Amino acid sequence: LAKTTQPISMDSYEGQEVNITCSHNNIATNDYITWYQQFPSQGPRFIIQGYKTKVTNEVASLFIPADRKSSTLSLPRVSLSDTAVYYCLVGDAFTGGSYIPTFGRGTSLIVHP
Amino acid sequence: DGGITQSPKYLFRKEGQNVTLSCEQNLNHDAMYWYRQDPGQGLRLIYYSQIVNDFQKGDIAEGYSVSREKKESFPLTVTSAQKNPTAFYLCASRASSSYNEQFFGPGTRLTVL
Fold first, then answer.
1. Residue-by-residue pLDDT tens, chain B, 113 positions
2. CB of A104 within 8 Å of any CB in chain B?
3. Residues on chain B touching A46 (C-beta within 8 angstroms)
4. Is A43–B106 a contact, with Cβ atoms under 8 angstroms apart?
5. B99 Cβ contact list (under 8 Å, min separation 6)
6. CB of B10 less than 8 A from some CB of A
7. Which pairing describes strands B108-112 and B43-51: parallel, antiparallel, or unpaired?
């Protein structure tokens, strides 16, 4: 499985755009990049997933450069409720049930008023 | 409503007692997972099951046991052999056909006194 590296923590202010970068230098051809969000005392929640270029949904955008060795989760105009831990996972989408999602420590984002 | 449930939300046990944590899903997912989370840490995989009547050890299986007799259920037993059982336990499920998205339960916070 491709190992991922993320910053341990980040701070931001309400209304700002936040970009969290994840490094995955040994990503494999079939690997997808998935981001989860976790609030305290809750289970993680899927945010966004992508393979290459850019993916956008109602919550976030995911930017993936051509070499796919990193990815950036972008949260537009954050609010206090975006304070959470964000996890980047990389894995083979086509192995079906044999894929074992592995979570690192994630990035703890704190949004200040 | 489809989802994944865990019970109880809080659990207190005396040291040396075995305790079983419940996890049920009605999403018709083949794969199910148990993770442990300690304060300020990421999720660590305890056990996973890709199909009924089959399961594999994760990274920290010592002191834990599981069963998968039904597709919907994946209970976790924390035995007296687990040296530091106090933690937040998360159950998740995933469709074999889905790319990487896992669905998590609300978690069980176990405190051993």
1. 569 999 999 999 998 899 999 999 999 999 999 999 998 889 999 999 999 999 999 999 999 999 999 999 999 999 988 889 999 999 999 987 766 688 999 999 999 98
2. yes
3. 101-103
4. yes
5. A32, A34, A49, A93
6. no
7. unpaired
Structure tokens at B18: 């075995």
- Tokens standing for A89? 């996972």
Give exposure, A4-35, as e/b (b: 16+ Cβ within 10 Å).
bebeeebebeeeeebebbbebeebeeebbbbb
Written as six digits, the tokens of B14 are 């005396």
